[in-house]
TrEMBL record:
InterPro entries attached to this UniProt entry: Efflux_drug-R_Bcr/CmlA, MFS, MFS_dom, MFS_trans_sf
Organism of derivation: Mucilaginibacter segetis
Membrane spanning stretches: 47-64, 76-94, 100-121, 133-155, 161-183, 213-237, 249-267, 279-297, 303-323, 344-363, 369-388
Identification of the protein by name: Multidrug effflux MFS transporter
Gene Ontology cellular-component annotations: plasma membrane
Single GO MF descriptor: xenobiotic transmembrane transporter activity
SUPFAM superfamilies xrefs: MFS general substrate transporter
Family, as annotated: Belongs to the major facilitator superfamily. Bcr/CmlA family.
Membrane topology reported for the UniProt record: Multi-pass membrane protein
Length: 408
């Protein structure tokens, strides 16, 4: 594979991966404006974020079997089309209930992009490169938290929150054109793959019974939920508790994203000297320590705005180191069922993320304490799952080289 082709694939797959996060990050600064426009509260607006996470979680399980049966691109076309239609529905929403429903449908569409891109990483690149490729996808993914909230803050302030969904629809159209004309079909349709309930459930069970998969997918998903706690709580913490404007909130969100993006790129260098499992272990221990300091400081009122930003930055660095490695280790055992494994991996992540998001909305305290508490619980549980789960991995499949056919 040439460097030019390698770079092009990373950009397209990264854009597909970023569509869901972009859909989340861009409308966060508009929460107060949406609440005023729809005569509701910011806590109720946050439920539209929860419905998005639930939609992605449900959609993951839908697309996994479809990707293994019909190839990667046909289900991807369907999902992107559904996303564009749902974005129009969000634009025309006249009540918070309609917005919550349209965000759910929008998520069903966007998760086709997420599942397909993860499966195509497994299709197109050698297993030994998977952690590095996932880290590079996070670099492209980093455009979302760097650009989306800042753009969203200015757009909602100047033109109204509805325009945000017009921009998202246009982005989806551009990505669709790139998929049609530039992205190869990496997995031929497998008509022997049955879509009947029993074989699908059996396929899921085969993946779920693999110790390396359930250990690193659950560990990664629970640890990653700290990011969802931050995303869900940050509009309330920064704009209502610390009284930051929507525009400045966008800049803070962008600055904090550097921790997540930067650490994922540092990971590309670390995996040259350390095993992925070692990096996951160190990242989770660091995340537990930072979370304890964050919660203690928030309860005692020691941190303030800048201290809170520093604590969140440290947490995001840990997530950025952990995530590419847990994904690579979880998917390493699979070739034939890569689509199913990818969908389960994403479902775990989004399901736990949705629960985290709903948990944040249940707290009435407008401070950083709910966020810090949930992050600490997430980090601790993830580390416990890692300690228990890896005892069951009798034959560990490392992220090492194994020939993988590349479709041109």
């Amino acid at each position: 594979m040439t460097k030019k082709r390698y770079f092009l694939l990373i950009i397209i797959l990264g854009s597909l991966t970023a569509l869901g996060p972009f859909s989340i990050d861009m409308y966060l600064p508009g929460f107060p404006a949406i609440a005023r426009s729809l005569n509701t509260t910011t806590e109720n607006v946050a439920l539209s974020l929860s419905s998005f996470f639930i939609g992605i979680s449900a959609g993951q399980l839908l697309y996994g079997p479809l990707l293994d049966r019909y190839g990667r691109k046909k289900p991807l076309y369907f999902g992107l089309t559904l996303y564009i239609i749902a974005s129009a529905g969000c634009y025309f929403s006249s009540s918070i209930q309609m917005l919550i429903l349209m965000r759910f449908v929008q998520a069903i569409g966007s998760c086709a992009a997420a599942v397909a891109s993860m499966a195509m990483v497994r299709d197109l690149f050698p297993v030994k490169d998977s952690a590095k490729v996932f880290a590079m996808l996070i670099l492209v993914l980093g455009a979302s938290p760097l650009i989306a909230p800042t753009v969203g803050g200015y757009v909602s302030a100047e033109f109204g929150w509805q325009i945000i969904f017009v921009i998202l629809a246009v982005i989806a159209v551009i990505i669709s054109l790139a998929v049609i004309f530039l992205l190869p079909e990496s997995y031929p349709p497998d008509l022997s793959y049955s879509l009947k309930p029993a074989p699908i459930i059996n396929s899921f069970l085969i993946v779920l019974k693999t110790p390396q998969f359930y250990t690193y997918s659950l560990c990664g998903a629970i640890g990653f939920s700290g990011l969802f706690a931050y995303i869900s709580a940050s509009p309330i913490v920064f704009m209502e508790f610390f009284k930051v404007s929507g525009k400045n909130y966008g800049w803070i969100f962008a600055i904090l994203s550097v921790g997540f993006i930067g650490s994922s790129q540092v990971n590309s260098q670390l995996i040259k000297k350390f095993k992925s499992a070692q990096i996951v272990n160190a990242a989770l221990i660091s995340m537990v320590i930072i979370s304890i300091v964050f919660l203690t400081g928030s309860l005692q009122g020691w941190l303030g705005l800048y201290g809170t930003i520093i604590m969140i930055f440290g947490m995001l660095c840990c997530v950025g180191l952990m995530s590419p490695n847990t994904s690579a280790l979880a998917l390493a055992p699979f070739e034939k069922n890569a689509g199913t494994a990818s969908s389960l991996l994403g479902a775990f992540q989004m399901c736990i993320g949705a629960l985290t998001s709903v948990s944040v909305s249940l707290f009435k305290a407008k401070s950083a304490v709910p966020m810090a508490s949930i992050i600490l619980v997430s980090a601790t549980l993830a580390f416990v799952v890692l300690l228990i789960g890896r005892r069951n991995i009798k034959e560990k499949i490392a992220v090492k080289e194994r020939p993988v056919a590349v479709s041109h």
